[in-house]
Amino acid sequence: FMFAQDDFLAVVAAGNEGQGDKATSVGAPGNSKNVLSVGASHAFGDDLERGQLGPPYIASFSSRGPTTDGRIAPDVVAPGKYILSAAARPNEPGACDPLDGDVPQ
Fold this sequence. Notes:
The protein has no helices and three strands.
């Protein structure tokens, strides 16, 4: 498919095998040629929690490069740890949309 569609770009996760700063932990399909692999970084702003250092730092679980044949991976990283979204309540377990209708400001 990709051979016939030269404008196609596959975007895939780098993986979740990076615990302990494990190098060459980006696996398939993130280590494939001609794909864009995305790793996870720490959050920023109000999302920072428990010693997170911010976007310049790779999340502890995110797979790391280089690939086994020496290519740089992941290609890009985006916030992926301690992300607040919807009407999430930091440090409180439960649904993003509380049943009581009390949405945090």
